[in-house]
Amino acid sequence: MSKIMSLAFKSLVVSVVAFGLVGCASAKMTRENAELRTQVQNLSDQLATAQAENAQLNQQLAGTESDLSKARAEYAAQQSELEAMTKKLTGQGFDVQMRQGMMVVTMPQKILYNSGSADLSTTGKDKLKQLTTTLNGELKGFPIQVQGHTDTDPIVRTKDKYKSNWELSYDRAQTVVYYLISAGVDAKRIHAAAFGQYSPVTANSSADGKAKNRRVEIVVMQAPGK
Fold first, then answer.
1. Among 88, 147, 148, 226, which residue's CB has the most CB atoms within a 10 Å radius?
2. Inter-residue long-range contacts of 25-33, CB under 8 Å, 24+ positions, other chains counted
3. Neighbours of 85 (CB within 10 A)
4. Percent of the chain with pLDDT over 70
């Protein structure tokens, strides 16, 4: 009888152990399943976030492409305006050309000033006044830079007033700026720049070359957001 009870007890112990092992395995699987569900949920959340960010980037890209398209159309329109004015002013006797998307009106020194001087001549004033009609008309709103240029000859007659060609070129450009403003050009859209002898259009090896380099250039630029 005791032998039977011993066997029964052993059987019971084996069952309990087996049940315990099954229970442990089941708990482990439950934990692992929970962890997997958490990982899946995290991945799902990350995917949703990435999709939302991608949609936002696509929207921004579409907006950028639209802005770029508008900017190109605006640039083309302004380019056409400047090209049309270039032809018009050429027909009125101005030395004018398109350069890097800008309209450049060149006025030789002999038209605007006496040698070594920054005082406008009567002919220079008349020519600038004629140009002002276009600057305040069809080209109203376009920014303007007035550039002063000289040849390589050192200052002689007016060296007490101008220490270098830099100073002379700036004074000449500034004189034109002041005159254009007095003729009605908005001061907010115009400024002077000095280049001295350092931006020649040709070599300074001849009198003719030097004459071409002594000039004022009125540069009409593209207007951002015009």
1. 148
2. none
3. 22
4. 88
Would you say residue 8 has pLDDT above 60? no
Provide the pLDDT for residue 52: 82
In the numeric block, the tokens 């376009």 are attached to 142
Q: In what order do the strands lie in the sheet with 144-149?
A: 95-99, 102-108, 215-220, 144-149, 190-196
Nearest to 220 by CA among 107, 78, 113, 111: 78
Question: Encoding tokens for residue 160?
Answer: 């007490």
Per domain, the residue ranges of the chain are 1-76, 92-220
Which residues, other chains included, contact 180 with Cβ-Cβ below 8 Å and sequence gap of 6+?
128, 131, 132, 135, 144, 146, 190
For helices 122-135 and 165-182, give the axis angle rounded to 10 degrees. Answer: 60
Which region among 24-28, 135-139, 163-167 has the lowest average model confidence (pLDDT)? Answer: 24-28
Chain-centre distance for alpha carbon 223: 12
Rounded to whole angstroms, the Cα distance separating 31 from 109 reads 91
Contact 162, 194 (CB under 8 A): no
Q: Provide DSSP, 83-126.
A: HHHHHHHHHTT-EEEEETTEEEEEEEHHHH--TT--SPPHHHHH
- Going by pLDDT thresholds of 50, 70 and 90, the confidence category of residue 24 is low
